[in-house]
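Technical note accompanying the year-one report. For the benefit of new consortium partners, we illustrate the data format agreed upon in the data management plan: each record pairs a sequence with a structure-token string. No post-processing was applied to the example shown here.
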Amino acid sequence: MMMDMSRDLVWLEFAQVESDQRLNELIAQLREHTESILYVGNQRDTVESITCDRLVGALGRSIEYGILNAFDGFSPNALAQLAGMIRAPGKLFIVSPLRENWPTFADPNLDALGQKDRYNSRYISFLIKSLSKLSDVKCNLKSLSYKDDVPSF
């Protein structure tokens, strides 16, 4: 029997008013199966949390699930660092504002990428187009199911 050695990227987009509730649901579902979760964003009591600017200090670790909360600030470096920490058959979750709102979402981490106040972020627009074109990016939390204690879509 061959073990699945792939890692999945899961992009979950929510309205800001529902983001905390949906994040709590995701974390609760993942914690039913493992404690090997790292949440990148503002501090949360229910899961090990770290901010984007401190993630470099966690490099070298291996985790099953990583959650990058773009509502708390998005960093391309943090995305790459977190992706490198996921061990197979793990999953990396990007939680973001709805795609139509994300490029203009007020995010202080994106000042260096050209997003000021309500101007359109070209980097985030590019990221959305890239994620949308990838056929293997999962985009639906409702279809999250578990087989052999590993979340799958």
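Partners are asked to follow this layout when depositing records. Strands lie at 8-14, 37-40, 49-50, 63-69, 86-97, 145-147, 150-152.
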